[in-house]
Amino acid sequence: MTTTTTTRPRPAAVLLTPSAEARIATLMQAAPEGAIGVKLSTPRRGCSGLAYSVDYVNEASGFDERIETPGGTFFIDGASVLYLVGSTMDWVEDDFQAGFVFQNPNAKGTCGCGESFTI
């Protein structure tokens, strides 16, 4: 008796909306020389403990999650993946502000200003 093991593709840790993918493409068009993508991380800061940070990245870590988008590569910091699994990242723009917005099912609370979250 032989057993065959098959693996299915692993879903991305974070779902990017079409608007977020378009914004990543715009950022990559204006990226500084040497940038290989855009990276999401969750550094410790703010009232609640963790914040979302999106920056250009010049080199990938072996632990980073990598999502290929039509406009460029999107990385998720390996240490942040557990805080972000199942999240949706969107780009929202209106008359007064513009920025990435996160729907994170892992967040147990946010600060009053929305800058940071807690797990």
Which key features would you list for this structure?
single chain, 119 residues, mainly beta, four-stranded mixed beta sheet, three-stranded mixed beta sheet, 10 strands, 13% helix, globular
Short description:
The chain has 119 residues and is mostly beta strands.
Count the DSSP helices.
2
Compute the separation of the termini in Å.
Answer: 46 Å
- Proportion of strand residues: 35-45%
The main sheet orders its strands as: 4-2-6-5
> What form results from the Cα inertia axes?
globular
Helix content: 10-25%
Mean pLDDT: 86
Residue stretches low in confidence (pLDDT < 50, at least 5 long) are none
Topology as a string of helices (H) and strands (E): EHEEEEEHEEEE
Q: How is the main sheet built?
A: 4 strands, mixed
The rounded Rg comes to 16 Å
Estimated structural class: mainly beta
Q: How many strand segments?
A: 10
Polypeptide structure, described:
- By secondary structure, the chain is mainly beta.
- It has two helices and ten strands.
- Strands 4-2-6-5 form a four-stranded mixed sheet.
- The relative contact order is 0.24.
Helix-strand layout with pairing:
Elements: E1 14-16, H1 18-29, E2 37-41, E3 50-51, E4 53-57, E5 65-69, E6 72-76, H2 81-84, E7 87-93, E8 98-103, E9 109-110, E10 116-118
Parallel strand pairs: 1-7, 2-6
Antiparallel strand pairs: 2-4, 3-10, 5-6, 7-8, 9-10
